[in-house]
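Give me the fold.
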Amino acid sequence: MRFLVTNDDGIHSVFLHELVHALRAAGHETFVVAPKREQSWIGAAKSRNRPVHATPADRGLGCPTWIVDGTPSDAVNIAIGHLLPSGLEINAVLSGINVGLNVSLGFVIASGTVAGAWEGALHGLPAIAFSQDLTVALYDELKAAGDVPGAELHAVVKISAQHAARLAPQLASATLPRSFIVHNVNFPLPCHANSEVRRTVPARVVVPGLFTPAADDGTHRLVFRLGEDLSPPELVTDRAALAGGYISHTVLDYKRLGQ
């Protein structure tokens, strides 16, 4: 298959690179367009009030690659409209692998990763978002190391990427064009070669108090919280699947909004 790949962690992300390597190893033709810098929690924002640059780059991925100094939505929109060869048909837009989970209503809507996939759906294409669950300690360790994962985490991401390369053509083939569907896939920590996939729904999580009280200079800073899960116990949620060691697969069907 032929995939356009983006993310919200930036072109430098090893998680993105491992996804691309796994896709190419599985024989898929791959094109990469990614933000120049991390764009986490930016949702589906587009850069309305400034010009956006898109630059070809060689990041050793073995496939056409562009860096966009904007959001994931900018990147996918510009790539499909202007960067990909004229007349080229893309089978799906893939976004990720994200550094950290993207589960529950409190996070899916805000996710730049999910939004990158959603931009593909807005172009009538099948769209899949991939994310890797991490502990807070592992996330902090990764950031302290300049986004270079340690050996154990890197091994987990490689396995998750192999799952993604297996799932991507299956989910793309099962999704009709112009269906306004995003497949949201989250990998557990650790993810094993035999980790099973569970079909899930977004957990109903409220996430208040995401900013600190005002500092002496009057500013507030974002703090990460998982929020409070209000999901009924009978729901098989994305958050519960990860806690049980399963790969979570949620179908985000935007046609059902308002029904």
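The longest strand covers residues 92-99.
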